[in-house]
Hints:
This protein is an alpha+beta fold. The chain has helices spanning 3-39, 46-53, 59-73, 82-91, 105-108, 116-119; strands at residues 95-99, 122-127, 133-139, 142-145, 148-149, 158-159. The protein has one domain (27-159). Helix 2 (46-53) packs across helix 3 (59-73). It starts with a helix and ends with a strand.
Amino acid sequence: xxxxxxxxxxxxxxxxxxxxxxxxxxxxxxxxxxxxxxxxxxxxxxxxxxxxxxxxxxxxxxxxxxxxxxxxxxxxxxxxxxxxxxxxxxxxxxxxxxxxxxxxxxxxxxxxxxxxxxxxxxxxxxxxxxxxxxxxxxxxxxxxxxxxxxxxxxxxxxxxxxx
Length: 163
C-alpha cells in the first residue's frame, strides 16, 4: 500500500470517527441539560428523576440517590452557598459544560485513578460568573454521579456513584 493511499484511508477513518465521538458528546450534553432541568423542577418527584436519569445498583442506592436529589433541591448552605449558586445557575441556564478531553493537564490528573472509559464520561459544570465548578459522570446514557469531592491537599477527585 502506498503512503498516499494510507494517508487517504487514515483521513477517511478520522473523518468518520470524529463525528461519531462528537455525536456521543452531544447526546451526553443533552442528557446532562435535561437531568439538571428536571433535578431542579419541583413538580417532578425525586423518584422520577432518579428512575429516569441515574444508574443505581440496588434499592439502598436508589434511596440514597433520591435523598441526594432532595438535598440538591434544598441545599443546606441555602441560596448563598455553592449548591444554592448551582441551583440558580441551572434554573437560569447560566452554566457551561466542558468535556474531560478539553481539561488542562493538571485538571485531568484529578481523574487518573479512573479507567479511561470512565474518564471519557466526565463533564465539568462551570457556573457563569463563578470560579467554582462541579463534575458529573455519564456512562451509557445514564448519570453515574452528579456529586463528588476533593479533599484539601489531595489532587484526586472522588465521585459518589450509585451503582
